[in-house]
Structures are given as C-alpha cells and as structure tokens.
Specification:
Blueprint (H helix, E strand, L loop, with lengths): L14 H24 L4 H28 L2 H24 L1 H20 L9
Length: 126
C-alpha cells in the first residue's frame, strides 16, 4: 500500500498524554461510583474527596494556562487596542457632560488603575 498522507492538526505538547490521563481518571471515578452505589457506600466520601482534589488541581492549572495566554505579545497588543478604543469613547462621554460624564470619569480612573497594575502609563489625554 502506498504511503498515506494524513493531515493531523498540530496540537500542544503532551495533549495525547493529557487526554489519556483524563479518560483514565474519569473511568476510575465512574467505576468507584458504581461500586459505591451498588455495594459499598463507604467509598463515596473518599470518591468525593478525590473528585474535588482533581477539580481543584485542574482549575489551578487552567488558571495558570489562562495567565500564560494573557501574557502573550499578541494578546497584550489586542488588549491595548481595545483599551484605547474604550478610552476614546469614555473621553467623548466626558465631553458630553451630565451623569454620563461622571460615569466616564470613574471608568477612566479604573482603566488608569488597571494600566498601573500592568506597568503601563495611565492615560494623559483627559
């Protein structure tokens, strides 16, 4: 048979291992759950602890991955571009006066605090 050309989509490192580990854990949780429901209710509290621990660990890892994604240069540029658009709109609201101006001033101050937290200069164009 001739060489097959498969176009497997590129994935992140160790994805297959992660999928296998997740499937293994889910199967094990399901087996223990069935065993506990049918024959040994004493297994249920320990199963609940294991599932809670797995959930906590996965949520922590997901948070770390989200922070890593947010630190990318492309993401930072897109965020800065959107922030600039928001600032322009809020400055326009300030010029119009009234309660919208007060709200716009407060929102601009929040953007300044956020910028300072991320090491960027505050907006000077008010």
């Amino acid at each position: 048979m001739s060489e097959q050309t498969t176009t497997k989509r590129q994935t992140y490192p160790h994805r297959d291992d992660l999928n296998k580990a997740q499937a293994r854990a889910r199967r094990a949780f399901t087996k223990v759950f069935k065993e506990g429901m049918r024959f040994d209710q004493a297994l249920m509290p320990e199963l609940a602890n294991l599932v809670a621990e797995a959930t906590e660990t996965l949520n922590r890892i997901a948070s770390d991955a989200e922070q890593l994604e947010q630190s990318s240069a492309r993401h930072q540029r897109a965020l800065k571009q959107q922030e600039d658009k928001n600032r322009a709109l809020l400055r326009k609201m300030q010029r119009q006066g009234g309660t919208a101006a007060q709200r716009a001033t407060a929102m601009l101050a929040q953007l300044d605090v956020r910028a300072a937290r991320h090491g960027r200069p505050a907006d000077d164009h008010r």
